[in-house]
Amino acid sequence: MAPARLGAHGLTAVRCPYCGHLDLKVVDSRDSDTGESIRRRRECLECAKRFTTYERIETVPLYVIKKDGRREDFDRQKLFGGLMKATAKREISPSVVERIVDEIESELRTRGKTEIPSREVGELVMDKLRGLDEVAYIRFASVYRSFMDLQEVKQEIDQLLSKDKKS
Questions:
Q1: Do residues 47 and 86 share a domain?
Q2: Mean pLDDT of successive 10-residue stretches along the chain, which has 167 residues
Q3: Sign of the C-alpha dihedral, residues 116, 118, 120, 122?
Q4: Rounded distance between C-alpha atoms, residue 126 and residue 163, angstroms
Q5: pTM value?
Q6: How many whole angstroms separate alpha carbon 98 and alpha carbon 95?
Q7: ∠ CA(9), CA(32), CA(13), 5° rounding?
Q8: Domain residues for 11?
């Protein structure tokens, strides 16, 4: 395959994932719900197949500080996967989960810090799930808070129910 060539703005050109051709046209462009990225439908002028690309502004990397002090790159896919597990078999679409991930990442970036304790990420997720789906919230909380027995699960459910009654 030929080396990537630079586009008009000095950026590496996008290749067709099917045939590797560089001549593409943009068929449709849309902003994401949060405005954090642009979704583009492209068509290869060689093989005529279509595919989707996403453009994001390159940002300062975020690091998550784990409970044991380890530092990891913030991983959208890991967060998305955890949310998908918590919302499995619930009536919550992957696009809603993607929106939550976007909102959490946006909120973390607006804090202006490059290192975020995992506890803060977990609390943001729990806040989002609490208002979305109580079962998904309890599922996530059981892993995040490492419940040791049913009594701890019951206490969390009781707290959730008492907040619902106050609302």
A1: no
A2: 44 85 94 79 96 82 94 95 95 94 93 93 93 90 80 84 70
A3: positive
A4: 14
A5: 0.61
A6: 5
A7: 25
A8: 1-57
